[in-house]
């Protein structure tokens, strides 16, 4: 029988709680749900009002993975949904606005991916993002060097950047922005990626061509496009172990001398949230957004 639980007055059916989803560590679905419940206060502001794309892996990362944007069949009526404009026609997507809808979505076994805009104004970006992806033999260590250069370059334009791990191999840089369309933010991010390659030619490539990437850091500026999404802060990733896209301090980026230093698993992140709160909370401060040149 599927267990029924109540979360803030909403009844939820939670399935297959004992299933091992991360065989390398024995991490179960129950532990996935416990992780998301524990970090909910930090995670929910990053999900709220952003149409959600799901990367689902119901049998673990070694099983079938599929990406879904439309409202899944069987979605409870109390889960908020919204019509979202898309080039191929409008779609109805989920908004995770509260703890019950977070736990419902987590029960589907998902990575959470969100755009750089909120549903109230899909025409205006409120986030800028860079995805720093190392091409072997480069690692997150090289990503840290590039991230520090980008932080200073953004600061020169009055934009404050924050860092998080991708939960995979690299780093993400985030910044709050205002008064610009996704297209304009994308153009600006591309200009900075080109400038980074020109300044750090031994380290950086801004083009997606895979043959150019070995030993360098690909500065992916394209995720600022309105149709694109990025792994949400605090989401678990579909990797061999339950790694998390975890916010980090700039001190940690500066001191990144070994790849393992910037790998955080679910248990690490629960402890970090308890100790530090949300290291990205400043993204939500009034007046904290920078203007895109």
UniProtKB/TrEMBL annotation:
Pfam families: LigD_Prim-Pol. InterPro entries: LigD_pol_dom (IPR014145), MtLigD_Pol-like (IPR033649), NHEJ_LigD (IPR052171). The keyword Zinc-finger does not apply. GO terms for molecular function: ligase activity. Residues 28-279 form the DNA ligase D polymerase domain. CDD domains: MtLigD_Pol_like (cd04863). Gene3D superfamilies: DNA primase, PRIM domain. It comes from Streptomyces aurantiogriseus. This is ATP-dependent DNA ligase. Keywords: Ligase.
